[in-house]
Amino acid sequence: MTGSAGKLRSFITDIFLPNRCPFCGKFITWDSLICEQCDKTVTKANIEICRRCGKRKCICGNNINYDMAFASFFYNEKPVRSSIYRFKTIGDTNIAEYAAEDIVSFMEKENIPKPDIIIPVPMGRKKRRKRGFNQAELFAGCIGKRLCIPVNKNILYKSDTKDEQHNYGRDIREKRVKGLFMAEEADLSGMTVMICDDVMTTGATINECSRILKDLGAGYVISAVCAVTELE
Ligand SMILES: [Zn+2]
Ligand SMILES: [Zn+2]
After folding, report:
1. pLDDT tens digits for range 151-169
2. Together in a domain, 102 and 157
């Protein structure tokens, strides 16, 4: 939701549910995204990352299957990490709402065409049942409502059988991620698809999902994450 309807909604929400800074939790006015203090200290990633691969230290030399990337913050910064932690564990969407607002205004500023469909990076069924939500889906919803674009969580799915892939480098993760994600039969011919996740680490997950989306016919894939990790 953008424009006056969105503003009115924020204003009304503020009366009942005061707006908080996603990083320090301080109360802020209904029309701000972040408190003044954090605005000065938390780095805005979108102006620093490579628009193609989404990394500050460009990895475009690797096989990148997506065409454009957005990330609002750097995961390595402590306030960002704790904000993502609250998002993942208790579903506190503050950071997701702010990242969605940031990415959408960035896209408008750069005249980037709206995607036709938004697809979240899926979570294994067992894990989703246990957690009760998939944060990538929540983030996709935050962007979808602002762009008025449908979110489809039924095209990609993730196998339950393979274990998680934390703490591996890009090469290992690229191998491990193969076969982890699958797709329902769908025709995305010529579509611009936005793939959403909470955090991009090596980029292997988004890259693999983008490969599958292109196999389904997607013409252009835009990656959008709340935060991106800086790798050594
Ligand atoms: Zn703050
Ligand atoms: Zn790059």
Report:
1. 999 999 998 865 555 666 7
2. yes
